[in-house]
Amino acid sequence: MQDAILDVKNLSIRYNGASEDAVRGVSFTLGRERLGIVGESGSGKSTVGRALLRLLPGARVTADRLRFEDVDLLDLSEREMLKVRGRRMSMILQDPKFSLNPIQRVGAQVAETYLRHFPANKAEARAKTLEMLAAVRIRDPERVHDLYPHEISGGMGQRVMIAMMLLADPDLVIADEPTSALDVTVRLQVLNILDGLVRDRGIGLIMISHDLNLVRNFCDRVLIMYAGRVVETLDARDMDAAEHPYTRGLLAAQPRIGGTRGPLAVLDRRPEWKEGSTP
Amino acid sequence: MSVRRTRLRGILGQITTIAVTLLGLLMLTFVIGRMMPADPVRAIVGEDATRETYEQVYLQLGLDRPLWEQFLRYLGDVLTGDFGNSIRTGKPVIEDILHVMPATVELATFAILIGAGLGIPLGVIAAVNKDRWPDHVVRVFSLFGHSMPIFWTGMIALIVFYAALGWVGGSGRMSQFYIGMVPTRSGFLLIDSALAGQWDVFRSAVNHLILPASLLGYSSSAYITRMTRSFMLDQLGQEYMTTARVKGLSKGQTIWRHAFGNIRVQLVTIVALAYGSLLEGAVLIETVFAWPGFGQYLTNNLIIGDMNAVMTCVLIVGVIFIGLNLLSDILYRLFDPRTK
User: Fold this and answer.
1) Phi, psi (rounded to 5 degrees) for A2
2) A contacts of B239 (beta carbons < 8 Å)
3) Does A82 lie at the interface with B, CB-CB under 8 angstroms?
4) Are B248 and A112 in contact (CB under 8 A)?
5) Cβ-proximal residues to B336 (8 Å cutoff; 6+ apart), any chain
6) How far apart are CA B173 and CA B221, in angstroms?
7) Contact indicator for B216, B153 with CB cutoff of 8 Å
8) Domain assignment present for A226
9) Tell me, which fold does domain B93-339 have in CATH?
10) Tally of structural domains, chain A
11) List of chain A residues whose C-beta atoms are within 8 Å of the C-beta of residue B238
């Protein structure tokens, strides 16, 4: 791919003290597109995201290639990494209840991203912050700017999170279960905001989720992970044509409105899939 | 309006709590005074007084009245600022205590500055480097401070730093030579000597203060270090720390800008309590260093059974702790937006 921003080949990750790799031989490339990574808990999807940001202390990361734009993430020094994080690659975390600092005003936390990466004074950072808060469709940015995290709702908290992570205009955003802590009613709203911003700014997005439906609606391509491996890669619109029995199992395990009322299919987990033998 | 009302109710509740605590404290000191085997009448009249003198004093003290009446009388006295006279010195107890208190406050304040100044950074270092060598070094260092008996370290330190090396002054608050040269205004020697422009005395006072304050500070830093480490470990695992790292902050920046703000409240509480126990009287260190402070005063009076003095001392210690608790409550509200 001509404008690949991320090129991962044969990525393996093992946590210290673990007897098995958490992620094994994962390869994919990413352009200015939206890539979904789907899998159940413990499949290694979040671990991949954190490895890209090099935020896995106490884990051994190996790969044949781990290239992000012009830099090799494998041998970048921590000092250089500080200029990548937040500025060129960022991550939206799951639950704003925990991912925002409880004793700092929302605006100050957002502005910190800007102040960290650009030579700006407080007033400029504040103006940028207010602009960004408006961009995530917060109606009264001036007021929200001075609130504390416990004074805003989950949906608004997640919009603040998006503002914080897109403020420095990164090229890649990893969204780690960005809506699973939110009420169903505001999920779509938050996703639409994220989606709009990502498209407008031409940002590459990796959406990590366990929600197959959500990913197929908001992503161009989907990686299905099982036990640390990618078992299948699909275009989102070809989801129904999935071949791997695990993917088919995931699809079959979803209830449908107007579908039969019988018991849902139970996921089959065969040990041989762990070794990556595709049927 | 309703916010103001809830706040007012909060303040009223706090005042009630303090009043009830104080009343309980007064009851306690009163009971201590009556239950102690020391005979207050005998302490005043002496061993060879006649029976008439004894009875006369017994009646004067109101000891024939029922206990509740005695307590009310004690309560009334205390509320009007009358804590009784010291048998030993004949002067009002409160005057004696005001005389010795500044020496202890001076010592305790320097000690807590050293203790917190040492303990907090060490605790943070230990937490950040959990289970690696800096953590082990810090733990051994603070365990040492915690478990060495302070009268022993006091003596050894005197031998080494005063007798052998001559780096610091010996016992007392200043050299014998300077005693009486500075007029007492606040009772705090450092302040008084500075006010009088007597810099020789000031230097001598610092010289004498530094060793006992360091030892006390070291021993209270052990506790502060341990608590800081565990508070910090709690915060380091929080999600908002990951957020800060994702934004591009270095590890050090996330610790001082984000995690530290979140442990401030807890730190204030434990440092206040540590300060309280230092004020209560570092009896042992005051004895070793012949420091004419509150701890020494309390011990001396306990030994001779001067109950008015002892009761008042206990009361003061209680009031100090109530005050520190109140202070940390107020700071809590200042530092944590969630409590508003």
Assistant:
1) -65, -55
2) 93-95, 98-99
3) yes
4) no
5) A103, B265
6) 23
7) no
8) yes
9) MetI-like fold (1.10.3720)
10) 1
11) 98
CATH number for the domain harbouring residue A133: 3.40.50.300
Query: Cβ–Cβ of B247/A83 closer than 8 Å?
Result: no
Of A91, A103, A161, the CB nearest to B337: A103
Rounded distance between C-alpha atoms, residue B320 and residue B21, angstroms: 12
Which 8-state DSSP code applies to residue A32? Answer: S
Cβ pair A85:B338 closer than 8 A: no
> Domain locations in chain B?
2-79, 93-339
Burial status of residue A99 (CB atoms within 10 A of its CB: 0-12, 13-18, 19 or more): buried
- With CA atoms as reference, report the closest residue to A134 among A193, A191, A202, A185: A193
Cα gap A69→A89, rounded to integer Å: 10
Which residues partner with A28 through β-bridges?
A: A8
- Does any CB of chain B come closer than 8 Å to the CB of residue A62? no
Q: Do B246 and A93 touch (CB under 8 A)?
A: yes
Phi, psi of A49 (to 5 degrees): -60, -45
Q: Looking at beta carbons, which residues of chain B come within 8 Å of A173?
A: none
Return the structure tokens found at B24: 């309980």
- The answer as to whether A176 is a domain residue is yes
Whether residue A99 and residue B242 make contact (CB cut-off 8 A), yes or no, is yes
**Which of B128, B60, B57, B104 has the alpha carbon at shortest distance from B299?**
B104
Residue A279 maps to a domain: no
Assess A169–B contact: CB distance below 8 Å, yes or no: no
Residues of A in contact with B245 (CB under 8 A): 53, 55, 85
**Is the Cβ pair B246, A117 closer than 8 Å?**
no
Q: Domain range spanning residue A76?
A: 6-274
Number of Cβ atoms within 10 Å of the Cβ of A279: 9
| Cα A245 from Cα B167, distance rounded (Å) | 80
User: Is residue A184, in this structure, part of any structural domain at all?
Assistant: yes
Q: What is the pLDDT along chain A (279 residues), one digit of tens a residue?
A: 447 899 999 999 999 888 888 998 899 999 889 999 998 888 888 899 999 999 988 889 999 999 998 899 988 899 999 999 999 999 999 999 999 999 999 999 999 999 999 998 999 999 999 999 999 999 999 999 999 999 999 999 999 999 999 999 999 999 999 888 888 888 888 999 999 998 898 899 999 998 888 888 889 999 989 888 888 888 888 877 777 888 877 777 777 777 777 777 777 777 777 765 444
Show the CA angle centred on residue A138, arms to residues A134 and A142, nearest 5°.
75
Q: Which of A99, A146, A174 to mutate to test the interface with B (most CBs of B within 10 A)?
A: A99
**Strands (E) located in chain A:** 6-15, 23-30, 34-38, 59-62, 65-68, 71-72, 89-92, 172-176, 204-209, 221-226, 229-235
Contact yes or no for B303/A67 (Cβ under 8 A): no
Chain A hits for B250, Cβ within 8 Å: 82
Work out the burial of residue A31: count CB atoms within 10 Å of its CB; fewer than 13 is exposed, 13-18 middle, 19 or more buried: middle
| Residue B122, helix vs strand vs coil | helix
Whole-angstrom distance, CA of residue B201 vs CA of residue B190: 8
Helix axes B93-128, B294-304, angle to 10 degrees: 130
B128: helix, strand or coil: helix
**Burial of A116 by CB count in 10 Å (0-12 exposed, 13-18 middle, 19+ buried)?**
buried
